[in-house]
């Protein structure tokens, strides 16, 4: 499992609001795919996938404020049979 966290967005920015998710639980994502968009009082940012995998959990709904370093989602590995 790989955690997706809100990264550092710039000097003096310590929180953001989740504007929209570009993926759903169960979606396959590749490394660097945009997963969600967050907004601050200064700018709008996209948060990218840190690795490939399946979106297992979305922990922060649209409209909720989060702090830098907070876990936004969890990615899991592909189930190979």
Description:
This protein is mainly beta. It has one domain (2-76): OB fold (Dihydrolipoamide Acetyltransferase, E2P). It is built from no helices and eight strands. The protein has strands at 2-5, 15-21, 28-29, 34-39, 44-48, 53-58, 65-67, 71-76. The chain has a four-stranded antiparallel beta sheet with strand order 1-8-6-3, with no helix packed on it. It has a four-stranded antiparallel beta sheet with strand order 5-4-2-7, with no helix packed on it. It is elongated and about 40 Å long. The protein starts with a strand and ends in a 5-residue tail after the last strand.
CATH topology-level fold name: OB fold (Dihydrolipoamide Acetyltransferase, E2P)
> Oligomeric status of the shown chains?
single chain
Mean pLDDT: 94
Alpha carbon gap, first and last residue: 18 Å
**What is the second-level CATH architecture?**
Beta Barrel
Number of helical stretches of at least 4 residues: 0
Q: Give the helices and strands as they follow along the chain.
A: EEEEEEEE
